[in-house]
Every structure is written in structure tokens, then in C-alpha cells.
Specification:
Layout (H helix, E strand, L loop, with lengths): L4 H29 L4 H8 L3 H8 L7 H10 L4 H5 L18 E3 L5 E5 L9 E8 L4 E4 L7 E8 L1 E6 L2 E6 L3 E5 L4 E5 L5 E8 L7
Helix pairs in contact: 1-3, 2-3
Keywords: DNA-binding, Transcription, Transcription regulation
Protein name: DNA-binding protein
GO molecular function: DNA binding; DNA-binding transcription factor activity
Length: 205
């Protein structure tokens, strides 16, 4: 049975509201995945900080142009930003072009964000590609956070506080990351690893 007149408008409004709600959550998760503040995302996208805040709180229906600017700043396709969680398939595929990339200050370490956006507030994981000598310096995460670095190729060194430990291919280092820490590629060839960060984990003794 078709929907006409005011009932059709009501149905469309409900659909737009639901889409906006999902959009706000997606924008917020992506922003946090990049460790961007509202001000930083506003600067990179050209969208006002107040508008981004309203989108994340589901208080406005943004224009397509606004969504496009945000998707460009967050380095994801506009289709992915607009996708509804209720319609997602059981098997979800992320293409290489849709994978956000973070680069270390020295430009020698690249982190592909391969974790699920919906878990970014408590679980994050990355594909790590490093050139020899590359260093990834990180600030402390929230108290109780733990990071796991599993080496696939090459050799890496992790420094936390005054402790330093190395791992080769097939080995894994687990360490508290709620204090400043560094990951270095110490092999003569490029290194490859996966990194998983568990936020709000039980505090270790």
C-alpha cells in the first residue's frame, strides 16, 4: 500500500531522522579514530565546529555538501559515511581506498586503521608498515589501556617508561599504553606488524 500526503512526509521525516542519527555516530567514531578534536575537524573540513557538534548529537540534518566535506576530511567514501547500521551485511568489506592511514612524525611509520569504527572507543587495531629506523611516538592513552604489537616481518622495539623490549616475526609484545610509549622498527629491512589497543582494560599491577 502506498503512502500519500502528510503520511508520506511523516515517513520521510522519520527516515531522515534515523539516517542523521546514524550519521552523527559515524562522524564521531571516525573523528575519534583520528584523535581529532571538533576544532581540528572543523579546520580540516571547512565545516563549522558548532555544525559538526550538532551533527554528532543528532540535532540537525546536514546537507550533502557538508557530508561530502566531512567525508573528505576523514578520508572515507561518502557512501560509507551514509550507510545505515541497520542495513549492514553480516560480512562487511573495507577496500584499500577506504582504509584511513596515520603517519608518524618522521614519516617512516604508517598505520592503516583496520579496526571496526563502531568499536573505536574501546578497541582499536591497526596494520603497521615501518621503514628501518622508523619511530612511532605516542602519548599516554586513558588509564588501564593495553596495547599488543604482533610482528609479522622484521623486528620492532617497544619502550615504555624505562623498559625496552624487542620482538621478531611471530612474537608479540603486550604493554601498558596509559603512559608515553614508543615503537621502533629496528631491523635492517622494512617491518610489518599488527597493533591492537584495548582501551579501558583492567589496570595491570
Amino acid at each position: 500500500m502506498g503512502v500519500e500526503g502528510r503520511e508520506r512526509v511523516k515517513v520521510l521525516d522519520i527516515g531522515a531522522h534515523a539516517l542523521s542519527g546514524q550519521l552523527g555516530k559515524t562522524i564521531q567514531r571516525l573523528r575519534k579514530a583520528y584523535n581529532l578534536s571538533l576544532s581540528e575537524l572543523a579546520e580540516q573540513s571547512g565545516v563549522a565546529k558548532s555544525i559538526i557538534s550538532q551533527i554528532e548529537r543528532n540535532e540537525t540534518n546536514p546537507t550533502l555538501a557538508t557530508i561530502w566535506r566531512l567525508s573528505q576530511a576523514l578520508d572515507v567514501s561518502i557512501e560509507r559515511v551514509l550507510s545505515s547500521g541497520d542495513d549492514e551485511p553480516f560480512i562487511d568489506k573495507t577496500t584499500k581506498g577506504d582504509t584511513p592511514i596515520l603517519v608518524s612524525d618522521d614519516g617512516k611509520v604508517r598505520l592503516g586503521i583496520i579496526g571496526w569504527i563502531k568499536t573505536v572507543e574501546w578497541l582499536q587495531w591497526y596494520d603497521v608498515q615501518a621503514e628501518p629506523g622508523g619511530v612511532l611516538d605516542s602519548d599516554a592513552h586513558q588509564r588501564g589501556s593495553i596495547e599488543c604489537l604482533s610482528v609479522i616481518e622484521g623486528e620492532f622495539e617497544v619502550e615504555v617508561g624505562e623498559q625496552i623490549q624487542r620482538a621478531k616475526a611471530g612474537e608479540t609484545l603486550r604493554y601498558r599504553c596509559d603512559r608515553p610509549h614508543s615503537v621502533r622498527c629496528v631491523s635492517s629491512a622494512p617491518g610489518h606488524a599488527t597493533m591492537v589497543c584495548i582501551l579501558k582494560a583492567a589496570v595491570m599491577d
